[in-house]
Write a structure and sequence with these properties.
The complex is a heterodimer of chains A (189) and B (439). Chain A is of the alpha+beta class and 189 residues long. Chain A is built from 3 helices and 12 strands; from the N terminus they run H-E-E-E-E-E-E-E-E-E-H-E-E-E-H. Classes of the chains: A alpha+beta (189), B mainly alpha (439).
Chain lengths: 189, 439
Amino acid sequence: MKKSIILACFVVLCLAQLFVPASMIHKREATLRHGEVFNFKTAPVDPYDAFRGRYVALNYEQSTVNGNWSARDYRRGRVVYAILDRDADGFAQITDVVLERPADQAFISARVGWAGSNRLMLRLPFDRFYMDEFDAPVAERAFIWQRDREQRTAYARTRIRDGFGVIEDLIVEEMPMRDWLMTRENTQP
Amino acid sequence: MNESKAIAWLRGQLPGLVEKGVLAEASADAIRTHYAHQRRKSGISLALLFFGVLGSLLIGAGIILLLAHNWQDMGRPMRTVLSLLPLILAQVLSGWILWRGISGVVWRESAGILHSLAVAASIALIAQTYHMPGSFDTFLLTWMLLSLPLVYLHNAVAPLMIYLAGITSWAGYQQSMGEHALLYWPLAALAVPFIWRSVRAERFSPRAAVVQWCAVIAATCALGIVLEKGMPGLWIPFYTSLFAGLYLAGGLAGREDEVSGWLRPARLFGMGATLVFVFLLTWEWPWQSIGWRYLRWNQGLHTVAAWVDGVVGLALLVFVVSMLTTSIRRKRAWDMLLGASVPVVIVCYSCAASGAELLATVLMNVYAMVVGIGLVVQGVREVRLLVFNAGMIVFSALVVARFFDSDFSFIAKGLVFIVLGIAFLVCNIILSRRKERLS
């Protein structure tokens, strides 16, 4: 192959390789700047990803929705749209799950985990909160300890825009997780 | 005879040739110096290549691990810049190599690995910075697609290994999550032109061998993973066709006596895998609960993927039939011994699917016995120790396996082991002596 063609192909490849991460960054930055805030109650546990490091995995009470769901329409892995609202405490709640993209309601795109006769489990697009490799296991232990003894709640503060959601922070006792961990370290003997 | 053996042979002949006056002492020395230099050079290149590839792998993996630590104190904008930095540096290195037209294999392979891992590091760090969900499949797929062109641009084998391992892992992940992995075949097809070109350029070179080993191992892993398995037991004729097809195709490449086995991966792997597979099929368990009576429709089956299984099966059949007919046309009679595994397995599968599992098992045992004896005969007639020993191993393994299935006494079992051992030793000694006499 001629050198000029190889170099041209290489430049195209480099642009594609930069475009993919750049578009990932742009979409999330736009959501974080302009998205609406929704707080999802959660319970973190600490797993590990070989490439991306340690994170706390987040399970949401809201990811299970009651109702009559057709297993044919809501088959595993299908993209659906969860209509969002807030409960009396201000936490996000899913009021309905539809197959068509809603026009004038706040919603989040999610995938169907499984559909039972009267319950639907959704895979919400923010199931991980990455942390420092030393902080993540401490966070998990501290959270389990807190939850069992004092029933404190934690929630993921998310920004949602056009059905796309990004986690802004993980909040425990109305404090970002990192600050909360530092407070605990300072107050515990 | 391979190159190093040929050089050793030539060096051994030199004193005799000088003694008989065929060659002057000075010429003999010149030949010695020439080949010594060549051997040293190839040794140094191999060492350089090995350490270059290893170094790049370690550096790339180290960068990924450093980024995985999660430097959360840095803040989002800084980490965003940091996430693109390894990629840009790798692009500059790759660009410099392509711009300068550097053709050194160590440079190209090392740059290919570093660049490929830099793509992974970059995507992973952005995923970490923005707490992206755990879609490992999307991550792998994006990484592989953005790295594949490096294989072609650098003409490098190491990024091909990463690519094949990556798409195979992707397929495995998809299947484990209850999804289908249909995209695997087009993804694999994207690497075929490179594999084809590498093999065509220098068929029996170490580079072509490495490429082929990667391809056959990836194909073997992927076939089992990607199959939707709508009809239980389809893996049996599929794998038999793949292994027998590789064996036959490897035989058609020729130069069997001149080139060592590892430089002909299709032949060596095809033969070994067919023998192991045929041996496994002599048990009854693979033939139980298979075939059209056990179709698993409506049990999480992906219909399109199930149909694609049929297309893959048909393609494998066409491949193996074309190899068989070419082998017959070229009068490669001995190749039919293992080539026949495909029709035999199809007959056995039909029997088992119709409920005659025992008949399928018996037929397979008879065939395995024929293969074992056939290879022994071929090995003796053609004075080829590898073929002879392969036949002996199949034969002995079959006898031993059936022996353990049955209720023979320990004395009888012990005697059979001793007889088989003696047969192995005596036949090998006789064959080695015959080979020495012939050479």
